[in-house]
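Please, does this match?
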Amino acid sequence: MVTALKMADAPWWVVAIALALGIAVSALLMLAQSLMPDESEHKRDVLLAWMRHRERQARGRVPNQRRRTARSRQ
């Protein structure tokens, strides 16, 4: 990608940004791979825990939205 930008005579700052983004994405992928468990049972447990957390957050938001709409109708 960096070579293609250089061959297209892109400014140096565009090449630097592309290089920095490439390194950052690679680092994030390596971090995610090291944090996720290797065994499928554990991956499932992590995913289920995350989904439960998201459901609890969504349930907490719904009553607030209902209260706002009920007040605005009065």
